[in-house]
Design a protein that fits this description.
The complex is a heterodimer. In chain A, about 25% of the residues lie in helices and about 40% in strands. The N and C termini of chain A lie far apart (about 35 Å). By secondary structure, chain A is α+β, with helices and mostly antiparallel strands.
Chain lengths: ~150, ~80
């Protein structure tokens, strides 16, 4: 399953959907919102946006790349958009395979590829302004923005 | 006319998420860029960081665009 959603991700349901009798391993990667701090300021939440349907298609392409490279029985990638509060999941990747090696490797591959090719952007909303991650464009003073 | 979509930091800099442009037949993305910057000068410093898509697929700067195409201006992606 490849999905972009605008509501909280039900990680348990994504894992449950990956359980199969021919697979002995399920690897899960969940990306969550972290509170960064800098001086007196801190991150209050993240906000994601995507170019759809290109982003949906790119998630499916990553799934196809994984199926070409590894012996996997199931791949799910679910990415959330909109406001994501601290500790909440922004992305869940679940890979089932007959043995653990491919499941670990393919789930790592999926998150790295998402960060390379999927047209999704996040904005860190700090207590003193915001910044687009990767572009360093925003309303925070450059001196306090992260490098 | 072509439709141009801006995302993330590019939408911020452009001050809009979408614009329409009249372009000559056979124009490349590189040739469309000065028109975009003419409309939205604050995009100028982002140029080297941007990628482009034509009709939903990554495209090189020498890619040709035609009337009816959708061009997306894509800052460095930061999903995950």
């Amino acid at each position: 399953m490849f999905a972009i959603v605008e509501r909280p991700i039900d990680v348990g349901a994504v894992i449950g959907a990956a359980q199969r009798p021919d697979c002995g391993a399920i690897a899960t990667f969940v990306g969550t919102t972290r509170i960064d701090e800098s001086g007196d300021a801190s991150v209050e939440y993240l906000e994601y946006e995507a170019y759809r349907p290109m982003a949906d298609r790119k998630l499916e392409e990553i799934g196809a790349e994984i199926s070409d490279r590894w012996d996997v029985g199931h791949v799910s990638i679910v990415h959330r958009l909109g406001r994501v509060n601290p500790g909440e999941a922004s992305v869940a990747i679940v890979v089932a395979s007959p043995r653990r090696g491919p499941a670990f490797e393919a789930s790592r591959y999926a998150i790295e590829r998402i960060k390379e090719v999927v047209p999704i952007w996040k904005r860190e909303v700090w207590s003193d302004g915001y910044v687009w991650v990767g572009s360093q464009v925003g309303t925070r003073e450059p001196a306090t923005g992260r490098p | 006319m072509i439709r141009v979509l801006f995302f993330g930091a590019a939408a911020d800099r452009a001050g809009t998420r979408e614009t329409e442009l009249e372009v000559e037949d056979g124009a490349t993305i590189d040739e469309v860029w000065p028109l975009l910057v003419g409309l939205h000068p604050d995009l100028t410093p982002m140029r080297d960081t941007l990628a482009f898509a034509v009709n939903g697929e990554y495209a090189r700067r020498e890619a040709v665009v035609s009337a009816g195409d959708e061009i997306a201006v894509l800052p460095p992606v930061s999903g995950g």
